[in-house]
Amino acid sequence: MEDTCICWFRKDLRLDDNPALVEAAKHKKIIPLFIFDKCLEEYKDIGLASHWWLENSLISLNIGLDKKLNILEGNSLASITKIIKEQNIKYLYWNRCYEPDRIASDTIIKKSIKELDVVVKSFNSSLLWEPWRIKNKSGSFYKVFTPFYKKGCLVSDAPRKPLDKPEKLFFLKLNTENQNYHFKFQNKKYKWSEKFEKIWNTSETSARKNFNNFLNNGASDYNEGRNFPSKNSVSRISPYLHWGQISPFRVWQDAKNKMQGLHKETFLSELGWREFSYHLLYHYPDINKKNLKIQFDKLQWNVNEKLLLKWKKGKTGYPIIDAGMRELWQTGYMHNRLRMITASFLVKNLLIHWKEGEKWFWDCLLDADLASNSASWQWVAGTGSDAAPFFRIFNPITQGQKFDKDAIYIRKYLPEIAKLPNKFIFTPWLTDKTILKEAGINLGVSYPYPIIDYSLSRKRALDAFKKISN
Ligand SMILES: Cc1cc2nc3c(=O)[nH]c(=O)nc-3n(C[C@H](O)[C@H](O)[C@H](O)COP(=O)(O)OP(=O)(O)OC[C@H]3O[C@@H](n4cnc5c(N)ncnc54)[C@H](O)[C@@H]3O)c2cc1C
Q: What CATH fold (topology level) applies to the domain 127-162+203-283?
């Protein structure tokens, strides 16, 4: 086909700052393509929340592409080869992804398609510093965040300016009736994910709108406010960044231009954590499967389905933990402080393997991200390369008192204990029966007793850790 190219969308479901699309725009016509390839872990094991986000964001992207998006389900190489041969296409462009199996698959695709005499080009659109770029003085990779960010990223080339959406774009929809289209806008309705429709709009326009809203409001309090889950001081931009409705270059630049002082520094360094997670994933491709500190392979984890289920459902009897787990269940998002506290509770107080928590988050988070999720779980568990020490165990009572002192967040997600006065709401089990009764709480029935004694569980965790440290 004369001067037509394929622009293969993956984790870059947007028109703004999309280098592959900018290259594609140099051709007369563009075949926009998305492939739901179950040979890749991210689609084979896609979480339910992610499935909802992906499906909805493809609907939004399709509108932006004049309803010409071609969605296929199947093996990427086979699908692309078929289009290239049938349509006699000479150009293929995409933006790079960094999951280990994706890298392996892309390498094969590039080689095979080039052999068909097709120009194949890939670009960077989702990381400010690609994972192989930042090296330490000895030419190796960084294992610790601060030097990675300060001595690596910040002294390396600054992130490029974001690219505008090309002005003229002509898209082409193929006649693909005979192809395997199971994924095509099926609008699979999962009862559980229906509620996201009231909370999230997955479009590129919403990503920009929400981020601007953050810059005009919460951003001026980010450095302190980001610790308090009831405040609107974080951006909630993570699902958009993961799926690519907004580019990190756009986020970096806008934050740099509009935020001030320490708030700006801290926010940019949080974006640095995202980069660091990908840096680790690239250099430790098994980060979601194996402890980075191998001494933890010997730790005696507790296998207990009952306790795991109570954690998942937010029924541990510790209000701040339960509020966090309910936020996740109800919104597909959890505030970072809560991610840390709930993860610590699972891994240390319940002594359940971090992989169980990682799997649950993977299924429930709209921003479920192989790099950030695995690296963060290993960080909390103390098994990661630059991890919080295992003996640092978050106290769910004092964390609640400190970061949700007026219990606004707890009351939002735990209406069954909302009537308890602030003094008692962090520890319902230590509360006088008459006060419980006045608040309408029948402990053990309307709200659970703690599933574990905090002090004993802390001691058990430290003992288990001591055993592997000797
Ligand atoms: C156990 C655990 C699991 C996590 N799983 C994920 C995950 O699957 N996907 C994910 O995107 N983040 C994950 N995080 C990191 C962090 O909690 C979220 O990125 C953040 O809460 C997203 O909210 P926000 O956009 O409002 O963040 P903001 O505070 O507004 O930060 C802006 C952006 O910086 C990045 N960022 C901030 N903190 C981190 C961090 N600690 N690590 C990596 N990137 C960060 C994110 O892209 C975020 O959107 C996890 C953290 C923990 C402790």
A: 1.25.40
Q: Angle CA(442)–CA(448)–CA(450) in degrees, nearest 5?
A: 130
DSSP codes, 150-173? IIIITTSPPPPPPPPPPS---B--
Query: Which of 376, 378, 394 for a ligand 1 pocket mutation test, highest count of atoms within 8 Å of Cβ?
Result: 376
pLDDT of res. 193: 80
The fold of the 294-469 domain, in CATH, is DNA Cyclobutane Dipyrimidine Photolyase, subunit A; domain 3 (1.10.579)
What are the tens digits of pLDDT across the range 369-406? 999 999 999 999 999 987 778 888 999 999 999 999 99
Indicate which atom in ligand 1 lies nearest the CA of residue 237. 25
For residues 16-46, one letter each, b for 16 or more C-beta atoms within 10 angstroms of the residue's C-beta and e for the rest, the string is: bbbbbbbbbbebebbbbbbbbbbebebbeeb
**Catalytic residue ranges:** 270, 273, 301, 336, 354, 377
From the CB of 223, is ligand 1 less than 6 Å away?
A: no
Nearest protein Cα to ligand 1, atom 36: 270
pTM of the predicted protein model: 0.97
Assigned CATH class of 4-125: alpha beta
